[in-house]
Amino acid sequence: MRPLTERDGVRSWNRVSCANSPAQGTGRRAVPDELSLGVRDWTNPLTGRAGPFDRMTVMSVLDSFRLDDKVVIVTGASSGLGVSFAQACAEAGADLVLAARRVDNLQQTCELVRAAGRRALAVATDVSEPADCQAMVDAAMTEFGRVDVLVNNAGVGTAVPATRETPEEFRAVVDINLNGSYWAAQACGRVMQPGSSVINISSVLGITTAGLPQAAYSASKAAIAGLTRDLAQQWGTRKGIRVNAIAPGFFASEMTDQYKPGYLESVIERSVLGRTGDPAELAATLVWLASPAGGYVTGQTIVVDGGVSIT
Questions:
Q1: Contact 189/198 with Cβ under 8 angstroms?
Q2: Are 41 and 134 contained in the same domain?
């Protein structure tokens, strides 16, 4: 393959030597000051800065996964994967707003965040109530002055045959899993600045079935994919906010502890990797999507399921 030239519409730029550049020994790459690719007046909608490289030193690969001094809201942060998400974001450098229906259930998560050297704020929140979601964001703005990332993790599930499930049971699942994600995103979207990110937690059961009667849960999680795409389309260009979803497979949590004997073993047999997931693996995916490393990803549902959905 021949190198691109001015005949291809790519103008040349001055060569620079990295040997004497300020970036030497810092692990960061220097960007030429006289970059001349015909994009001088272009503004990145995610950062509000000019140029595709933001006219700043390009981050090293590992630095791009940092969340230093960002403010992250995690709903459903009192147990299960929500605890792992909060701890991972704190370890990546973020301050946390932790939301759950009962504040006293959040104390352990707060301690994990503070042990990582970051600040934590616990807020009692029922995400199925729009007013609660707005109060959660108001508390975050009062305490930290900003919201950079929302992790819509709050969720519930049932396993009831479709002919027996009551309207109240079905609505209760949808109210939290789908409606709650929307109300929380709506409240955050009102205050988020360009470069912010919303991450909705869906499920592999929104993509495939796994042997249990979970119509309400599966429907609510499948709907998250559509919600994610639409919010990404609405807020990408206009607000500079990225919106993505993660569809986890089977990870050890309080929810999997409730499965009937033998069920989890049958899922493991179906998995290409032959095991359940480690919560740290899922948390790493979330940090990627929340960080500058995922800055060109929006409107996507990332499946993290050990291959369950392809068998």
A1: yes
A2: no
- The total domain count for the chain is 2
Q: Which of 203, 210, 158, 164 is nearest to 181 (CA)?
A: 203
Residues taking part in catalysis? 217
Q: What is the 3-state secondary structure (H, E, C) of 80-147?
A: HHHHHHHHHHHHCCCEEEEEECCHHHHHHHHHHHHHCCCCEEEEECCCCCHHHHHHHHHHHHHHHCCC
Q: What is the pLDDT of residues 125-145, one digit of tens each?
A: 999 999 999 999 999 999 999
Asked whether residue 54 falls in the same domain as residue 160, the answer is: no
The pairing of strands 242-248 and 301-304 is parallel
Cα–Cα distance list, 104 to 84, 111, 152, 180 (Å): 18, 12, 20, 21
Q: What is the CATH number of the domain that holds 77?
A: 3.40.50.720
246 and 285 Cβ atoms separated by less than 8 Å: yes
Task: Please write the tens of the pLDDT for every residue from 71-84.
Answer: 999 999 999 999 99
Entry pTM: 0.81
